[in-house]
Amino acid sequence: MQTFEIKEDFLLDGKPIKIISGAIHYFRMTQNQWEDSLYNLKALGANTVETYIPWNIHEPIEGTFDFSGMKDVVAFVELAQEMGLYVILRPSVYICAEWEFGGLPAWLLKDGLIRLRSTDKIFMEKVENYYHELLPKLRPLQVTQGGPVIMMQIENEYGSYGMEKEYLLATKKIVESYGIDVPLFTSDGSWKEVLDAGSLIDEDVFVAGNFGSQSLKNAAILKDFITEHNKKWPIISMEYWDGWFNRWGNDIIKRDPQDLADEVEDMLSVGSINLYMFHGGTNFGFYNGCSARGNTDLPQVTSYDYDALLNESGQPTEKYYLVQKAIKKVCPDVWQAEPRVKELDNVGSFPIDKSVSLFHTKDDIVKSTYSSYPLTMEQASSGYGYLLYDFELKNYHHENKFKVIEASDRLKIYADESLIATQYQETNGEELMLQGNPDSDTIHMDVLVENLGRVNYGYKLNNTTQMKGIRGGVMYDIHFHQGFKHYPLTLSKEQLAAIDFDKESNPSHPSFYQSTFNLENVKDTYIDCSAYGKGVVVVNGINLGRYWDKGPHLSLYCPKEFLNVGENEIIIFETEGKHITNVTFSDTPVYV
């Protein structure tokens, strides 16, 4: 057993310790990657690893919990301890982290009645239910119980969202009721307003700052805030931003490696540090987050490379070696070593064997749900992926007005299986003119809506726009239409296994493409998506995430653990009418 206290210094068994930490998110990489990443963190000169714990992957369906495989946070923490690292855990129900909805589960939006991150009775009941499953798993991992966990966070950047101290106190009470006795902390930006709104400093909850530049200035602001509240605590940047995330259609954001090393040296001269990110990893599946600028949502890309010290695949970068030198300069007694490197491979190019139109196999892969008015994604299913709305309009044999009211995010609108519009952001809700087939008394409509990722930061967390799919309705002429079949497309293993590739193919439709091939050896690799339009790639039942030809990334990282020695199956869901003929691998990422 050990003790960890926060007084004028961080004290481990009564002795001062400078925390040198890096962020590794267990849920953004395979279990087999954990060891190399943790080793490289220790070899950098670090003594601690930090990770968030996202609520939405551990309770994907309300009341159903999952801590297996890549979600096994206990195994990750235990491995860190085996490798000689302490652990900072951030199990707050909101994490930001450029992660879908900031880690909040989509099912919280199902009724549209809950006020998130507040003392709303229903919200706090959901928090209590989640913590009832999570915290007993974390309690034995504390240093006070013989584990490596030295600190835990109760809320994240709350001062950038709210100021309800009663909510923070209620969360603290729940956490402590489950035997969590290591120091608790909050973490906010480095300016007084957010530190004041988001902290519980007067309740002796430790205050950390999030910043990644102007180290001496930001550390001084944090110190002044702590001193004003009559505390003598040490300084730590809990998120020292060493890079940045990327959005679809924007240039990749890079930071000068030497500038980072110089700033890290400054930060270590006055306090402790957690490098965010040390190894970013990948937003597999549908878990990428979304920024918001005004009324515009800015979805983030699948890669969470972050321009970090280790790149997306785990390779040390120039930043790694320069920061390693900076740490040694300030802390000459730290243990350091050469990092581990890995070899990536282009495992080949393989033809597409089969393809089928979504419209012709939709009834094979999912049972539709009927409703008079359109359901949202949260009401119809899990709230992730795509939702296809299927309905019939009466053909009046002349042009008629048509529009979709209040929908998020991106719509592909088809009349009699022909694309008539793609609507997104600026054009959502625009009026269209429909002209039916003169030989038919009906117009068959399909509206495919894609959830591109819920916002992970800011006021929109409580905005109804984060309910995905069609919220308002569909108008024909000047009235709301009734009668919809709903096909939720989560692209689960079960759905993909049910695709009937013997049915009709039509590349102009949203389509599934299948390639089966054999491999004699497997290595980490990338799938080159530069010939594709927009969609997702699924490797042996595992969703690698989204691709989009607007870039900046035109490839998807594929860890070797997702590939098989022997037979492999790749299924591509392409929504933009691109005719896909090959699956091509690459040993390097592909960019615009």
From TrEMBL:
InterPro entries: B-gal_1-like, BetaGal1-like_ABD1, BetaGal_gal-bd, Galactose-bd-like_sf, GH, Gly_Hdrlase_35_cat, Glyco_hydro_35_CS, Glycoside_Hdrlase_35. The active site is at 157 (proton donor), 239 (nucleophile). Residues 10-329 form the Glycoside hydrolase 35 catalytic domain. It comes from the Bacteria. Its EC number is 3.2.1.23. One of its GO terms (molecular function) is beta-galactosidase activity. Residues 374-489 form the Beta-galactosidase 1-like first all-beta domain. Signal peptide: none annotated. It is an enzyme of class 3 (hydrolase). It catalyses: Hydrolysis of terminal non-reducing beta-D-galactose residues in beta-D-galactosides. Keywords: Glycosidase, Hydrolase. Residues 510-568 form the Beta-galactosidase galactose-binding domain. One of its GO terms (biological process) is carbohydrate metabolic process. Belongs to the glycosyl hydrolase 35 family. This is Beta-galactosidase.
